[in-house]
Amino acid sequence: MSDKEISGEVYYPSKDVIKNAHIKDWDKLNEKVSEDYLGFWAERAKELHWFKKHSKVLDDSNKPFFKWFVDGKTNISYNCLDRHVNTPRKNKIALIWEGEDGEHTTMSYFRLHKETCKFASILKSLGVKKGDRVTIYMGRTPEIVIAMLACARIGAIHSVVYGGFSVEALHERIEDSQSRVLIVSDGAYQKGKIIPLKDIADEALQRAGTVEHVLVIKRTGQAVNMEQGRDMWYHELMNLPIVTNNCPVVEMDSEDPLFILYTSGTTGKSKAILHTHGGYMVGTYTTMKYVFDINDEDRFWCTADPGWITGHSYIVYGPLLNGATVFLYEGSPTFPYPNRWWQLIEKYGITIFYTAPTAIRGLMRFGESWANRHDLSSLRLLGSVGEPINPEAWKWFYKVIGKEKCPIMDTWWQTETGMFMIAPMPCVPLKPGSGTRPFPGIIMDIFDEAGKPVGNNQEGFLVIKTPWPAMVREIYNDKDKYIEQYWSKFPGFYLTGDSAKRDEDGYIWVIGRVDDVIKVSGNRLGTAEIESALVSHHSVAEAAAIGVPHEIKGNAIYCFVILKQGIERTEGLIEELRNYVSHEVGPIAKPESVEFVDSLPKTRSGKIMRRVLKAKVMGVDPGNLSTLEE
Ligand code: WT7
């Protein structure tokens, strides 16, 4: 694409950036992939290890239940570890970790492999078998990575619950997945305090009946309750002579489940998104390599939590599949001072730094001087994910952190897509606020309400028209929901739930969610989850939650509550309800405001009209009210 063809404010990559990149010409690659996208993915699969090669790249005979690398046998954990341990990479650092309290450790591929085997053999001794679900509820320490890889090694399905979720959210996810084993840490350091993860888990387990064994990882060392016969310290088991380093890998079919990860959808409870060993592996491996241009010399830092899809795909699987060095940090960016991240980049020589717009906005507030006191010259690439990045934050990131030499990879994707879907590569000209174009081989479009493509610069529903290897396979145990959520509004096309525009250069500008999902600091929350927590409080009759714009968080949660008869409206009750949601769902879901009302605007079929509530809070015209009941 020549310079003249692109309109608007454009940032071109330097010759140096292009010279050393895996992909030097995006258009050429795109052209080649477009001719034969299945051939492209088959070539990528060849770069990984298969116990048995696939007989077919894609089986689309039973849409929308696509199968990739049909009949192939592999194991993603084997590809992350054993594949490297059999090469000189065995001595390379796989993982560098620093705790918020300053404790730190590094692990070679050799050691990470051994630790994973040990962890896997402990899981086996607890009776965990292929296909069993294991819930993991931990802070950001090396053991969370090891636990995930250990599950994958023996074919167990991991279900990681983000440590920022709390009692009811954890309970619901354990119960829905029917996990018999829970892996939990005693606590995690966050902003100088301890999040009592084991205590929260104990409370959740009082509500759930499926868990038989709890494996407790010692991190903070505070006193925790250990229930006889149920709870075991991981470090004690590790020292038992029955625990071996030698835990054979289980050969998995390409389509065998790798993990489930709960995320909020349009309605009701959160849904378990299912990903598989084969396609997810090829998708995360390839996008990591092409978009973040990962090399052996790199030190890659993704600041997400392993408990979100970003952490699954781009802290654990994508980087390790590529034999990269990953950095993991336990704590908060502002503890003890707002320079912590910049200090860590300098200390560990991070070369690729991938974070979220909300974090950038949050750190911008403290001014440039915190970053300027550190040598950030090791950086060569930056990344952004989670929500649209506002041009102001983009430019600050580009200038103050990247010193105008590091292209920003703004990556649009979802829990369901498993891998980057709209993202540049280092050689691609950038426009602040756009993730540029879909990854080669992926065709996306923007539809109007009737399913017709809209014109340039018009807003509409963002859809995906072609299958991709890392795509969600189903909502675990609920195939109907899967079809209903993603494939029914525009049959034959995957509905992302986002609205977007496309400009004359084919660049896509994502605007935000069009469903009942709220993005708070990039975290995905469902209005239903917050509302059901509120109505479970003894004072509340009905509740509605909406997202309203917030300078740093992107959106903040605003709740409307109808109290039960005879309950008095007090400031104290507002505080109680906010804290109650935090206790039940998690601190990330704590409402910014709670307003008491007498009624809620509803359609005749009883659906809350959130659009009307939002207009009220923002003081704007609510638009068409013809479907309003009263
Ligand atoms: C939703 C998916 C998978 C990454 C973490 C979030 C929003 C994500 C971007 C971006 C604009 C973005 C979308 C999407 N989103 N990345 N670069 N630009 N919006 O995964 O929790 O499943 O959320 O996050 O609204 O639908 P998730």
Rough shape?
A: globular
Give me the Rg, rounded: 24 Å
% residues in beta strands: 15-25%
Poorly predicted residue ranges: none
Fold and architecture overview:
By secondary structure, the protein is of the alpha/beta class. It is 30% helix and 22% strand. It contains 20 helices and 29 strands. A 7-stranded mixed sheet has the order 5-4-17-16-18-19-20, with helices on both faces. A 7-stranded mixed sheet has the order 12-11-8-6-7-14-15, sandwiched between helices. Strands 21-22-23-24 form a 4-stranded antiparallel sheet. A hairpin with a 2-residue loop joins β9 (188-190) and β10 (193-195). The longest helix is centred in the N-terminal third of the chain and has 17 residues, at 109-125. The mean pLDDT is 96. The protein binds 5'-O-[(S)-butoxy(hydroxy)phosphoryl]adenosine. The site of 5'-O-[(S)-butoxy(hydroxy)phosphoryl]adenosine has 22 residues, from α12, β23 and β24.
Summarize the structure.
The protein is an alpha/beta fold and 630 residues long. The strands form eight sheets. Strands 5-4-17-16-18-19-20 form a seven-stranded mixed sheet, sandwiched between helices.
Record keyword descriptors for this entry.
630 residues; alpha/beta; 7-stranded mixed beta sheet; binds 5'-O-[(S)-butoxy(hydroxy)phosphoryl]adenosine
